[in-house]
Every structure is written in C-alpha cells, then in structure tokens.
Specification:
186 residues; Topoisomerase I, Chain A, domain 4; Gyrase A, domain 2; four-stranded antiparallel sheet; 58% helix; ribosomal large subunit binding; coiled coil; protein biosynthesis
C-alpha cells in the first residue's frame, strides 16, 4: 500500500462519515414537514420489510402535513401502523385513499433537545474522523517500519492526513450549525 492509497482511503472514509452524519441529521425533525422524515420507516409488505417510499407516494400537502398515498389500497392500514410504530412522534390519519401525517409544532424545550441530539451526532462523526486519521497514521508508521518510505515522507503524509481531518471536522461543524439554525427557526 502506498502513501497515495492511504490518503485516498482516509479521504473516502471521511467522506462516508460526512454522508452518514447528513443522513442521521435528516432524521432530526424540524418545525416544517418534509418527506425525508419518513425515509427510515419500513412497512411490512407481504412479509418483507420495505421502505415506505417503495409502497407509497409521499407528498407535501402543506407546510405541516405529509400526504402518503399507497400504491395498493389495502396497504393503507399497514402503512399507518408502520408510521405510528416508527417512534417519530407522528400520528397519521386516513382520509379516503390518502394518509395524512401532520407534524406537530415543536416546543422550545423539544427544539433544544433536538439541538443536543444534533451535537451528539456531530461528536460521533468527529470521533469517526479521528479514528480514520489514527488508522491512516498507523499505516504510515508501518510503511516506515517496513522501510518502504522515509521518515520525511511519513511526516509529509501525516500532515496531509491532518489537513484532511481538519477539513472534515470543519465540514461537520458547518453542517451541524446549519441544522441547528434550521431546528431553532420557528
């Protein structure tokens, strides 16, 4: 494994950590409705757990209501139960063929809890990035030990890995700051 491979591998893993953080933060509910809230809901579709967007059409009815229209009419009750059981604090109600999912307004206390949750997710992402840096540095040390590279090359490569780490952590802070602003906006 070369220095370039180690750096590329570290960068790829850090990018995946950022994507994971974005996905985790998408679950955090803000005051407005968006169909992404239901992305992680799975419905029992003929015995198979299936993502809700594969058994129903998700739309926004208004700023606080999501509309769920099942592709098959008999799936309505199953979808309604899956949304209720998803522990998102949502209470769907069927109206004809469509299931309306109103998103209740967030209290100030709940918003602060959401911000804490965002910060916790950010800290987990930062820990993941630091672990990636540690692994990359250990691989570089192994190359020096095996006399594949010089100590100067190792030092330069470690500096590059540190720059990648700093950039990833700055990106995490930026993403979380945007989400906090979104959560605290009434």
């Amino acid at each position: 494994m070369s220095i370039a491979d180690i750096k590329k591998n570290a960068q790829d893993k850090m990018t995946k950590s950022l994507e994971t953080l974005k996905n985790d933060l998408a679950k955090v509910r803000t005051g407005r409705a968006h169909t992404g809230i239901l992305d992680h809901v799975t419905v029992d579709y003929y015995g198979n757990p299936t993502p809700i967007n594969q058994v129903a059409n998700l739309t926004l009815i208004d700023a606080r209501t999501i509309g769920v229209t099942p592709f098959e009419k008999k799936m309505g009750a199953t979808i309604e139960k899956a949304i209720r059981d998803a522990d998102l604090g949502l209470n769907p109600s069927a109206q004809g063929d469509t299931i309306r999912v109103p998103t209740p307004p967030l209290t100030e206390e709940r918003r602060k809890e959401m911000v804490k949750l965002c910060k916790s997710e950010a800290e987990d992402a930062k820990i993941a990035v630091r672990n990636i840096r540690r692994d990359a540095n250990e691989q570089l040390k192994k190359l020096v030990k095996d006399k594949a590279i010089s100590e100067d090359e190792e030092r330069r490569a470690q500096d590059d890995v540190q720059k990648l780490t700093d950039k990833a952590i700055a990106d995490i802070d930026k993403i979380v700051a945007e989400k906090e602003k979104e959560v605290l906006t009434v």
